[in-house]
Amino acid sequence: MSSATAFRIIGYFIFLIFSKNTQTMNNIALRYFFILLIIALVGGLVFAGTPTETNTLLFEAALLIFGIQILVFLPSFLAQTEHFYDLTGGVTYLSTMGFMAYRHQQLFGEWDLRTLVLTALIALWAIRLSSFLFSRVKRVGKDGRFDRLKTSFTRFLLTWILQGLWVFMCTYPALIALSSPSDTEFLFLGIGTSVWVLGWIYEVVADNQKTAFNKDPKNAGKFINTGVWTQSRHPNYVGEFILWTGITIIAIPVYEGLQWAALVTPLFVYLLLNKVSGVNLLEERADEKWGENEDYQAYKEKTPIFFPKLF
User: Fold this and answer.
1) Which of 4, 88, 106, 239 could in theory staple to 202 by disulfide, Cβ–Cβ 3.0 to 4.6 A?
2) What string of H, E and C letters represents the secondary structure of the chain?
3) Distance (Å, rounded) from C-alpha 281 to C-alpha 294?
4) 120 contacts 127 by C-beta, under 8 angstroms
5) Which whole-number Å values give the CA distances from 119 to 57, 66, 96, 158, in the listed order?
6) 0.70 cut: is pTM over it?
7) CB 161 within 8 A of CB 32
8) Res. 275: pLDDT tops 80
9) What is the pLDDT of residue 141?
């Protein structure tokens, strides 16, 4: 099975999971099959990204990523709470990158600049986003996405496994870089870091503008159409896509043979944000709330759904 075919299958099943109208995923066996499919995909990518037969760093990282998800899933299911889902995602990023930096130094004897930059950039993003999402859930009281999911053991488990896949796929280029000997290439380091900074700033500005907009009582029941939200209907997601592309660029000099599979990371992030659990769901909610609003229809007409209109 080609990697493109595998991702089409995964995208189809993820769509089924979050579709309100489908009954297909009521089949428990199918959910377990999808979990096994994810494990097989991750196993294949671990094999592809491992530089030598004796190097087990990617395998260790995968075990850590999914181990954390299972560890937090069990008490979360018993307590029927989703409050720690996003926070766990952030903790997983931090734990994985910290562990990989430690193992890189242990295996190769030094921390090169690329290792330090990759670890710092991902840690900075994870701390900001997970704390932002966790505080939002605590303030609102719940995350409506989980109302139907958390009542079913297999649905909720699959949601946590998907988070593990999200962490693994996003960090995959960095994990390959940290599994390889130190040899910093400053051209790609500089380009990739610049791209990451651009994406991070765009995401932070978008999140802050929307938070301020929603806090203003005068905007109750309204949609945001100011600031960077005039350039894209989902600028925060655009920023996330850009920053993970930057991480992929930084790691390019280490890619050899099957390790070039890491270039799938930006595509994975784009598909995840647009077709699975981001843009598509938010667009549906927005149409339900403001579909009859002429101002909103005009906003949709002139504002791109994803990639920004800069001029």
Assistant:
1) 239
2) CCHHHHHHHHHHHHHHHHCCCCCHHHCHHHHHHHHHHHHHHHHHHHHHHCCCCCCCHHHHHHHHHHHHHHHHHHHHHHHCCCCCHHHHHHHHHHHHHHHHHHHHHHHHCCCCHHHHHHHHHHHHHHHHHHHHHHHHHHHHCCCHHHCCCCCCHHHHHHHHHHHHHHHHHHHHHHHHHHCCCCCCCHHHHHHHHHHHHHHHHHHHHHHHHHHHHHHCHHHCCCCCCCHHHHCCCCHHHHHHHHHHHHHHHHCHHHCCHHHHHHHHHHHHHHHHHHHHCCHHHHHHHHHHHHCCCHHHHHHHHHCCCCCCCCC
3) 21
4) no
5) 15, 19, 9, 28
6) yes
7) no
8) yes
9) 61
Which of these, 180, 169, 165, 232, lies nearest to 205 by C-alpha position?
A: 232
Closest CA to 117 of 67, 192, 5: 192
Which pLDDT does position 160 carry in this prediction?
Answer: 92
Per-residue pLDDT band at 235 (split at 50, 70, 90): very high
Residue 49 CA to residue 179 CA, distance in Å, equals 9
Tokens of 115: 């290792």
Backbone torsions φ then ψ of 92, nearest 5 degrees: -65, -45
**Is it the case that residue 166 has pLDDT exceeding 50?**
yes
Q: How far apart are CA 80 and CA 17, in angstroms?
A: 19
Distance CA 177, CA 111 (A): 12
Q: Which are the contacts of 218, defined by CB distance < 8 A and separation ≥ 6? A: none
Total Cβ atoms within 10 A of residue 22? 11
Token pair, residue 201, equals: 């700033």
